[in-house]
Amino acid sequence: MSELEINNLVLAFGGVKAINDVSFSVERGEVYAIIGPNGAGKSTIFNAISRIYTPKSGSIKFQGRELLDMQAHEVVNTGIARTFQNIELFENATVLNNLLVGRASKVRTGAFSEFFFTPRVRREEHEHRKKVEEILDLLAMQHHRYERVADLSYGARKNVELARALCAEPELLLLDEPASGLNPEETTDMSFWLKDIKEELGVTIVMVEHDMNLVGRIADRVLALAGGEVLAVGSVTEVQSNPIVQAAYLGVTQ
Ligand code: ADP
Ligand code: MG
User: Cβ distance 221 to 189 under 8 Å?
Assistant: First the structure.
């Protein structure tokens, strides 16, 4: 069984098909990149997986479970976390508080026990802090912990968003353009973080990314999408040298 299996996905906005019969599957532990020109439908696929958008037809199975039968908040609890193309964080809160919010899907105690601050709540609080510390260490972000997100550089904010997603302890991480807006040095750092996330945490990663250098460094497989349709799937070199993919980037119709 594949970790993520998408079959015959169709999604339309007011009659215009943004995703037209897309099928692909991602194996556990893989780094899977989705590339394609602007408007190809890449973010729409992520929004369909997160259940922000409802497809017209098709199927999205995560670890064998149909996500289209679930609501958005239920998808979070299955072990899927994501980042957004436009960073979405609590700008006026500290890094630490943003990461603690990332733990929200893991909160088990109810309002009643929280009110009385039972030992179980204390234990849980300790557990959340410990996990957040681990992620801050992993991404070398300890020095930013008490800083307000709004005061950070763009690159650091992107890291906070990645960290927040990791705090949910996902098994599948969806990253929408993790390197966009980063300088070359930050992009290199990002490739190391993503490698560590794959190797040390065993997380499966699906990422939308334009930087082919980054894709080449970390992706096991690449899917090229254009006009809501799959053009090719293969290794980075296979996909990059595919004439249909090249034509799509040039805007040439076949
Ligand atoms: P990509 O991420 O590959 O650049 P998107 O998935 O964001 O592309 O968009 C694919 C297509 O769907 C585009 O034509 C875009 O205009 C359209 N689209 C995306 N989201 C919406 C929306 N909420 N309402 C209407 N059209 C949308
Ligand atoms: Mg996009």
Answer: no
With tokens 């930087």, the residue in question is 211
**CA atoms 220, 221, 226, 227: torsion sign:** negative
**Residue 51: DSSP 8-state:** T
Cα gap 244→218, rounded to integer Å: 23
Q: Choose one of 44, 54, 84, 249 to mutate for the ligand 1 pocket test, by most ligand atoms within 8 angstroms of C-beta.
A: 44
Cα dihedral angle (65, 207, 192, 63), rounded to 10 degrees? 10
Name the DSSP letter for residue 15: T
* Helical axes 184-201 vs 119-138, angle rounded to 10°: 130
Domain with CATH 3.40.50.300 in the chain: 1-79+170-254
Using the mean position of ligand 1's atoms as its centre, give its distance from the Cα of residue 176 in Å: 13
pLDDT digits (tens, 9 = 90+) for 145-165: 999 999 999 999 999 999 999
Residues listed for the chain: 254
| Ligand index nearest the alpha carbon of residue 38 | 1
CA atoms in the 13 A half-sphere facing the CB of 44: 24
Q: Which amino acid is at 244?
A: I
Q: Is pTM beyond 0.85 here? A: yes
Ion ligand 2 residues within 5 Å by Cβ: 42-43, 85
Question: How far is C-alpha 116 from the chain's CA centre?
Answer: 36
| pLDDT tens digits, one per residue of 68-114 | 999 988 998 899 999 998 889 999 999 999 999 888 766 665 555 55
1-79+170-254 CATH fold:
Rossmann fold (3.40.50)
- Nearest alpha carbon to residue 135 among 92, 106, 108, 177: 106
